[in-house]
Each structure stands twice: as C-alpha cells, then as structure tokens.
Design goal:
This protein has helices spanning 8-22, 32-37, 40-50, 60-66, 84-91, 104-108, 130-141, 159-173, 185-191, 309-316, 321-326, and strands spanning 3-6, 26-29, 54-57, 73-76, 96-100, 114-118, 145-150, 179-183, 197-200, 216-221, 224-228, 233-234, 240-241, 246-251, 266-269, 272-275, 285-289, 299-303. The chain has 333 residues and is an alpha/beta fold. The chain has two domains: 3-200, Alpha-Beta Barrel (TIM Barrel), CATH 3.20.20.10; 216-326, Lyase, Ornithine Decarboxylase, Chain A, domain 1, CATH 2.40.37.10. The strands form five sheets. An eight-stranded parallel beta sheet has the order 2-9-8-7-6-5-4-3. Helix 1 packs across helix 3 (40-50). The termini are close together.
Length: 333
C-alpha cells in the first residue's frame, strides 16, 4: 500500500534549467523504463510542452504508452528485430526511429525506416564496432533513412577514456550530415554541449547536481502500532532486538514493492527519521521507537525530497537509478 506523488512542476523546472544553460543544443529526454518510474506518457507530454522534440525509449512497451503522441520523435533502443510483426508495426509510425546496432537489422527493417546508428566506442552493450561502422553505414543508407549516429559513455567521470570515445566517434561520423549524440547526464555536466544533443535522464528527474529538484516521492502509511518489550526480536532471523521498552509500527510495503531487503534503510515521517527494525519482508517493514511517536494512518516517506534516491542508493550499494525505478512503480491508493 503506497502512494506515488509526482511533481511535474519540478520536471519542468529541471528541463528549463538545463535549456537555459545549453540554448539551442538539443536536450533529449530519456523516458525509457516508464521514465525511471515517473510515467513515460506523463513525462513525455510535460516535456513536449516545454519544447522537447526527441525522446529516448527502450522497448515496444514504452512506445505503446506514447504511440498517439504527435509532433515528437522517439528513438527506440531495443527493438526486437527477431519479431518481424513488431518491426512492421513500429515502422508504420512515422515518428519512430530505430536504433540500428547490427547488420542483420538492415534486412529486417522495411525500406525507408528511420534509424540512428549505434556506435560502440567502449560501452560494449549493443552497437556496431568502430571498424565496422563505415560498412554498416554504406549498406544502411541504400535502404534506410540514416538520420543520426550515437554512442554512450560507460564512465563519463573518466576524462581520458571519454576523450578517446569522443575522438573515435567524431572521426567516424563527421561530414555525413548526421544528428550526433554521445552525452548522457554526467557527460553533459563534465563536457558541455558536445555534438548535437545530450540524452538526459537522471538530471531531469532531480539528481546529479544540487540545483535540480527531485520529481518523484513515494509514501505509505502505518497500519498498526504496538508495544514491544526490551529483548523482544523483530522480523525474520531475529536480527533486531529492542534495546529497551518501546513501540513498533508496521508499514505494509516490502521488497515486493521495490524496497530492497537491505540493512540501514530509513524512512522519514513527520520530521523524524526511523530506521527499519529487522529484515524488510515481502510486503511489510517495521519501525521502532523508544517513544510513543507512532499512530495508525501516519504517513511515511519511502522515497522523495527528504528520503532521496541518491542517499538510498548509498545504503543499498547501488546507483541512484535503482531506487527510482523500483520503489513505488505501481501506485495502489
């Protein structure tokens, strides 16, 4: 049982802040994975109003949420080229741009399909290797509308590795009249407006530097409060033992709702922090207080402006993206 609150005014603020800095340079919002848990359709419509023209999605599930949105384009990272029916369906939408990452996709795509060629300059995810780019490009342009090329920083904070990527990408793609993009959020912060645009995700959703505002908050409620005596244990494996008489609150959210089963996770409620007592369970977590500070119906912040995703990520030993895409992705009440 949780409630998701999305402050679209913060998304607008973050986009405007970046656009003010980069001017005509293209900000390409990343709305894949349900817009990092914020809602692909909703985020797209808001950012379209702000002037965004090109959006990044991942799969056909993302596209189905926005297939009726007009006057903007969608670059799909992972079209299923083994499913010809899917490819024909996607190609029937004039605003869909395919990620062309391998030779076999050229044979599958209908003539005239729009593509951006993915050049693998060091990420080693999908993409054509630099030595194969020219051959792919020449073959693709005989059948398809090759409109752009892009690559990706696996570690933008490493200037030397990133510099080599930039130089490789530039040498392959210059003077071809292509729309080129390699920047992600961190790359934009470190290297500025290189090439024609930046695929921006985490900055838009409120993380990555101190002047952007978190967009998403997730809340739940306390459903039971009870006394606990000193020495009593809480949850599986009895990893928490009450140090003194106190009170226990039960919140009906657990790892089934994206709250990872990790020690040290805290929630924020009515100006106070409460660390989870014992293991988080599948659909509940418990809070302890030596004082009578809980009440049934009291709201707790699982993620948001106080309980920030970057702080949660430190506790979880992961990246900021994971709490955003996992906690409260399916609102219930």
């Amino acid at each position: 049982m949780f409630r998701v609150e999305v402050r679209w005014e913060n998304l607008r603020y973050n986009y405007r802040l970046l656009k003010k800095e980069v001017g005509d340079y293209e900000i390409i919002p990343v709305v894949k994975a349900n817009a990092y848990g914020h809602g692909t359709r909703e985020a797209t419509l808001v950012l379209k109003e702000e002037g965004a023209k090109l959006f990044v999605i991942s799969t056909i599930d993302d596209f189905r949420r926005v297939e009726d949105v007009r006057d903007v384009d969608f670059l799909m990272l992972y079209p299923d080229y083994t499913d010809r029916g899917q490819i024909e369906y996607l190609a029937s939408h004039p605003n869909l741009i395919f990620n062309l990452y391998d030779f076999y996709a050229i044979d599958v795509l209908p003539p005239g399909s729009r593509v951006h060629i993915n050049v693998d300059t060091g990420m080693n995810r999908v993409g054509v290797k630099p030595q194969d780019f020219e051959r792919l490009y020449e073959r693709a342009k005989r059948k398809l509308r090759v409109e752009g090329a892009y690559s990706h920083f696996p570690v933008a904070r490493d200037p030397e590795f990133s510099r080599r990527q930039i130089e490789t990408f530039d040498s392959l793609t210059k003077d071809k009249g292509l729309f080129r993009h390699i920047n992600n959020s961190e790359g934009l912060l470190r290297y500025g407006a290189i090439f024609d645009g930046a695929r921006v995700g985490i900055l838009l959703y409120g993380y990555g530097r101190p002047d952007v505002k978190p967009v998403k908050s997730v809340f739940s409620k306390i459903v039971q409060v009870k006394r606990i005596r000193k020495g009593e244990s809480v949850s599986y494996d009895r990893t928490f033992v009450a140090p003194e008489d106190g009170f226990l609150a039960v919140v009906p959210v657990g790892y089934a709702h994206g709250v990872r089963r990790a020690r040290g996770y805290r929630v924020f409620s009515e100006g106070r922090w409460y660390e989870v007592a014992g293991h988080i369970t599948m659909d509940a977590l418990m809070l302890y207080s030596p004082e009578e500070s809980f009440r049934v119906g009291q709201e707790v912040e699982l993620l948001g402006e106080n309980n920030r995703a970057d702080a949660i990520a430190e506790v979880w030993g992961t990246v900021t993206y994971e709490p955003l895409v996992s906690i409260g992705t399916q609102p219930v009440w």
